[in-house]
Amino acid sequence: MSREIYYSEKYEDEEGYEYRHVHLPKQLARLVPTDRLMPEEEWRRLGIQQSRGWEHYMIFEPEPHIVLFRRKLRNEKVNEEHKANGEMKHERVPADGGGQKNYN
User: How far apart are CA 96 and CA 13, in angstroms?
Assistant: First the structure.
């Protein structure tokens, strides 16, 4: 059944996180809780396979079969990218979460 799981390409934000979306088949999507985030042990039991460090960070209500993950990038990598772009950000700006539940 794990062959039916689709993993999106990874992408990064300016705050130092890497993201990935995992699309589950209907039979697995029914097992995903809609009222809380899953710890690593639970999403691994569903057959989701990723390297260490990923966290289930948000529930996207319109499409509960898509599990949203993120992980913190290494500080050195983030700092190098900001320096290369001539920017060193220290301010955090919250994103609008329209239709999304962020439990952090």
Answer: 15
